[in-house]
Write a structure and sequence with these properties.
Blueprint lengths: L1 E6 L6 H6 L6 E6 L6 H7 L3 E4 L5 H11 L4 E4 L12 H8 L5 E8 L7 H18 L10 E4 H6 L9 H11 L4 E8 L12 H16 L10
Parallel strand pairs: 1-2, 1-4, 2-3, 5-7
Antiparallel strand pairs: 4-6, 5-6
Bound molecules: guanosine-5'-triphosphate and magnesium ion.
The site of guanosine-5'-triphosphate has 19 residues, from strand 1 and helix 3.
Protein name: Glycosyltransferase family 2 protein
InterPro entries: Glyco_trans_2-like, Glycosyltransferase_2, Nucleotide-diphossugar_trans
Family: Belongs to the glycosyltransferase 2 family.
């Protein structure tokens, strides 16, 4: 199993995350130009470090997917907000052929884990997603598992905050079975880059709106 961990200045969170990677899994920490020694810490804790110079959550995730070699690839944030072992049953579900993409629905376990505006934004997005794809999801969380070659075949192009949404939209368009399971959401370690800042929130809304405006690709259908 390859576990992709996008990482931008997560020195504080990395030990917690890497100590919880399930045994036998390879942790691919994608260093997105950290200046706090994240790459050194990642190596110390046994991870493989992949470098991605281009900034952006999607750029980091995609570099990890490209570097991965395992049949199934998992994704988890590197900010200690999600326990990597929550992915174990996700992988089992993919292996059993019961789903093509499994997503974690974040359930905050402490006050402050998920600011109100971020929750509201995410819920609104889930509704738009439902209208666009018919999928009844409640969250577009970063904890995910899918088969590597299937993911690559989706040809994802977003390299910023729209990446997780584009993955779900294109998976739905391709007829994948997408499932969702509750996962505990903990307050992140270190500073938030997206929902804790105006700039991050604004960019996320813009990137996601762009993805939702994309016209579905009609693969195999003559137009
Ligand atoms: N935002 C952002 N995150 C990156 C980037 N490159 C890597 N990451 C990592 O992606 C993960 C998610 O980023 P966060 O800043 O936690 O963003 P988020 O979880 O969407 O939102 P928050 O609620 O603000 O935590 C973290 O592990 C980051 O270190 C980047 O360019 N931008
Ligand atoms: Mg986070």
């Amino acid at each position: 199993m390859d576990l992709v961990l996008p990482c931008l200045d997560e020195a504080e969170a990395l030990p917690w995350v890497l100590e919880r990677v399930p045994p036998g899994w390879r942790a691919l920490v994608v260093d997105n130009g950290s200046t706090d020694g994240s790459d050194r810490i990642a190596r110390e804790f046994g991870a493989t470090v992949v470098r991605e110079k281009r900034r952006g959550f999607g750029a980091a995730c995609h570099a990890g997917l490209t570097a991965a070699t395992a049949d199934i690839v998992c994704f988890c944030d590197c900010d200690a907000s999600l326990h990597p072992a929550e992915l174990v049953p996700f992988v089992r579900e993919i292996r059993a052929g019961e789903a093509d993409l499994v997503l974690g629905r974040r359930r905050p376990k402490a006050r402050g884990a998920w600011p109100a505006h971020a929750r509201a934004g995410n819920l609104a997005l889930a509704r738009l997603l439902r209208r666009r794809t018919g999928l009844r999801l409640h969250d577009l969380g970063p904890l995910r598992a899918a088969r590597r070659t299937d993911l690559l075949a989706l040809g994802l192009t977003d390299r910023r905050s729209g990446y997780p949404l584009q993955m779900v939209v294109r998976a739905a368009d391709a007829g994948w079975k997408v499932t969702e399971h509750d996962v505990p959401y903990l307050p992140r370690s270190g500073a938030s880059k997206v929902t804790g800042t105006w700039r991050g929130t604004f960019q996320a809304v813009r990137d996601m709106s762009r993805v939702l405006r994309e016209v579905p690709e009609r693969t195999g259908v003559a137009s």
